[in-house]
Design brief:
9-stranded mixed β-sheet; 9 strands; alpha/beta
């Protein structure tokens, strides 16, 4: 947790969940999207949870380079340090976009939209709720947190989840996202391309915070990738080397 952002009290809907209710009750889409952190090209990066857990309780990760078997294995071992799963279940497309979805902005700005060409399997979504291990101290992080993981394209998933459902995430994370040879069909850091335009052009508003960084020296990320986010609040060390900044607009 950081002092620049308010600490959230775990809500009843999150604390009351059980393995059975996660599997069988209606999917709490509105609760998961509210005050969430959105992280495309996330792979299995735990840094946002490590640094913002408690300021954020709902994390939305998106990556079409990660398979279902990989994800299941990673969440169980090692998962998030000091946390264990309460329960998990697959989420259907109709639960994510109950009103349907069509792109709110054309994808031809960057050429054809081709993330499907690089997919190894069908899109999927997995929802998992974690609780802090009983032997971990209170300052390790919140009692519980939620992770929604989508095998999908980051720009399209943002439009489907947030724009179509008329919600704004609290934080967007762009951390070593890569493009071209890095595996991404578009550059998330470019404020003129489809990902930034989808987020900054959301009719419901813009996120208050941007996490931006990656490998390399701190000087490589001295400024935010999107000029609108110009006020640096915190710098964090990135796991494996590098740095991450938290910027506000």
């Amino acid at each position: 947790m950081i002092s620049a952002m308010p600490t959230l009290k775990e809500p009843d809907w999150l604390m009351d969940l059980t393995e059975e209710s996660i599997a069988n009750d209606p999917f709490p889409l509105d609760d998961l999207l509210k005050d969430s952190l959105y992280y495309p090209s996330s792979e299995f990066d735990g840094d946002p949870v490590k640094y913002l857990g408690g300021n954020i309780l709902s994390f939305i990760y998106v990556d079409y380079g990660v398979g279902k078997d990989q994800l299941t294995q990673e969440l169980s071992n090692p998962g998030f340090l000091g946390y264990r799963p309460v329960g998990s279940r697959a989420v259907q497309e109709r639960e994510l976009v109950p009103n349907g979805w069509r792109p709110s902005m054309p994808f031809d700005h960057d050429g054809d939209w081709r993330p499907a060409a690089s997919r190894r399997e069908q899109p999927f979504c997995l929802w998992t709720v974690f609780e802090r291990e009983p032997d971990m101290p209170d300052d390790h992080g919140p009692d519980r947190l939620s992770l929604l993981y989508l095998y999908a394209d980051g720009a399209a998933a943002f439009q489907a989840l947030y724009v179509s459902n008329r919600v704004v995430p609290k934080v967007v994370a762009i951390i070593q996202s890569g493009h071209s040879f890095g595996g991404n069909w578009t550059d998330f850091t470019d404020p003129e391309k489809i990902f930034a335009r989808s987020i900054l052009g959301n009719p419901k508003g813009r996120p208050q915070w941007l996490m931006y960084g990656g490998f390399g020296p701190r000087s490589s990320h001295r400024e935010s990738c999107w000029p609108l986010y110009s006020e640096l609040k915190e710098f964090f060390e990135k796991a494996g080397g590098g740095s991450i900044g938290l910027w506000s607009r």
